[in-house]
Design a protein that fits this description.
Layout: H1 2-19, H2 27-35, H3 39-44, E1 50-55, H4 60-72, E2 78-80, H5 88-97, E3 109-113, H6 119-126, E4 130-133, H7 147-158, E5 166-170, H8 174-177, E6 186-191, E7 220-226, E8 229-233, E9 246-252, E10 257-262, E11 265-270, H9 276-290, H10 299-303, E12 312-318, E13 321-326, H11 331-343, E14 348-354, H12 373-376, E15 382-388, H13 392-401, E16 409-411, H14 415-425, E17 430-436, H15 438-450
Bound molecules: zinc ion.
Zinc ion (ZN) binds next to loops.
């Protein structure tokens, strides 16, 4: 009875807040938890296949969206939270809203993207059947503090996993791979790309985690794809990268095909997104989906119509202009987005960087100084830089110090106005890359929706 009241009160609140246009994905979860603190546990206990939690610093949203595409492909509905609703109240909102009339579960499985800080609670309340970890980077300085704190939060969740649960780990990230030590059921994913497909040394190394998690010695890399991700071993204690079960072995950027190896099988999977980090997202999603026994030969078909989640290298057309949107939130992620922009072959590129400093963006914008504009700036092929948002002038200063000429940099504080100006002033041959922080992305989304330019949004 209490559960029933919690669910329906929450759904009513959700309905009212949507009608009044306030959005807000956390409110229903808050209401439900206030009425019945066990609401999340109770709801997930009804799922016959249980819960998969997916966490990590970067790539959560895209990996979860890819995995959801795979899992839904055989016609079985799953519950999947929207980007941004990844705190414990957001997970609760998602589950509450997935319930049918009379509180029968609509799906057998929930795939929940979960913020690292919410992992201990989420683990405790859902006893997941699988936990997927993408990578660990230092996020913005003012968020969770040290990397070891973040790793510890994920460890807590792992200790709450169902006894037959699977850990799905990025073998190429030492801190992530080390979570699999002494665990029974571990599936590793990673990259084994030919050397020429890897990135040049860009100084995107924000120190982070290039040390052996077992003995603390500096790791030696046989191959490094970006930051601390690659094929490593410890010269001191001998610990080395676990051999991945799912490995991306080839990435054909022209035909947008990634080849994934599993044992002796090779699969060619479509991936129409730039950036080597998306190869990780893809192979991670495949490994996650396979915990549910999906037929491997179906995967290519399942991914053919995949569309990136909003703002994760999503493409939007505005009056014949091609616009790419890519959320930026920390130094490694931003550097990787720039790498992807440099990789993409268009002849003329303009960039709009919109930096806000509200709580959800991170209030300390000093992380912009850790983004490697110095190395990347000259070889991105960007003709015009527009900077915008509440911290537009900090960003302009950052570009100035990176040696980008003043005459190429335009400051327009309102991102929406900046984007409109860019579309007006550019020709159709120009591709516009929009790189906003989180709340700037939300503002831009609203603007694009009002103008009728966006077709779909996964985000709430
Ligand atoms: Zn070691």
């Amino acid at each position: 009875m209490r559960l029933w009241v919690a669910v329906w009160a929450a759904r009513l609140v959700g309905l009212v807040s949507r009608i009044s246009g306030r959005g807000g994905s956390s409110l229903p979860g808050m209401v439900a938890r206030r009425i019945d603190p066990l609401v999340l546990s109770k709801l997930v206990s009804r799922l016959s296949k249980g819960v998969i939690l997916l966490t990590g610093t970067n790539g959560k949203t895209t990996t979860a969206a890819l995995a959801a595409s795979l899992l839904q492909c055989d016609g079985h509905p799953i519950v999947h939270n929207q980007a941004g609703a990844n705190l414990i109240v957001g997970l609760t909102s998602t589950m509450v809203q997935a319930e049918k009339w009379r509180v029968y579960p609509r799906a057998a499985l929930a795939l929940l993207e979960t913020d690292e800080a919410s992992m201990p609670r989420a683990g405790q309340e859902t006893h997941p059947r699988a936990i997927v970890v993408t990578n660990f980077f230092r996020d913005q300085l003012d968020r969770y503090g040290e990397l070891s704190t973040t790793v510890g939060m994920v460890r807590k969740a792992i200790s709450q996993m169902a006894s037959d649960g699977w850990l799905v780990l990025n073998a190429d990230d030492p801190q992530v791979a080390f979570l699999g030590q002494d665990q029974q059921h571990v599936i590793y994913f990673g990259l084994d790309l030919p050397v020429n497909a890897t990135l040049e040394e860009t100084g995107d190394d924000v120190v982070d985690a290039r040390f052996c998690p077992r003995c603390g010695q500096a790791l030696r890399y046989r191959q490094r794809y970006y930051a601390h991700l690659g094929d490593y071993s410890c010269p001191n204690c001998g610990w080395s990268r676990p051999i991945p079960h799912w490995t991306a072995t080839l990435w054909d950027k022209q035909s947008h095909i990634v080849t994934v190896r599993h044992g002796n099988d090779l699969m060619e999977l479509p991936m129409n997104m730039p950036g080597i980090y998306n190869v990780y997202n893809l192979v991670g999603a495949v490994a996650a989906a396979m915990t549910q026994g999906l037929p491997a030969h179906e995967m290519g078909r399942c991914l053919e119509h995949f569309e990136p989640a909003f703002g994760r290298m999503e493409q939007v057309m505005i009056r014949d202009h091609q616009i790419w949107l890519a959320l930026v939130k920390n130094p490694v992620g931003f550097t990787q987005v720039l790498e992807a922009v440099g990789d993409w072959p268009e002849s003329s590129k303009w960039a709009l960087i919109a930096i806000n400093d509200r709580y959800a963006d991170g209030q300390d914008v000093s992380w912009l100084w850790d983004v490697d504009f110095e190395t990347l700036g000259p070889r991105l092929g960007i003709d015009q830089w527009w900077v915008s948002g509440m911290r537009a002038y900090d960003m302009a200063l950052r570009l100035k110090y990176a040696g980008i000429p003043d005459e190429k940099v335009h400051v327009v504080e309102n991102p929406n106005i900046a984007l409109d100006m860019m579309v007006d002033q550019s020709t159709r041959t120009v591709t516009i890359y929009v790189m906003p922080t989180y709340t700037a992305l939300l503002d831009l989304r609203q603007h694009l929706t009002q103008k009728g330019y966006t077709r779909h949004f996964r985000e709430g």
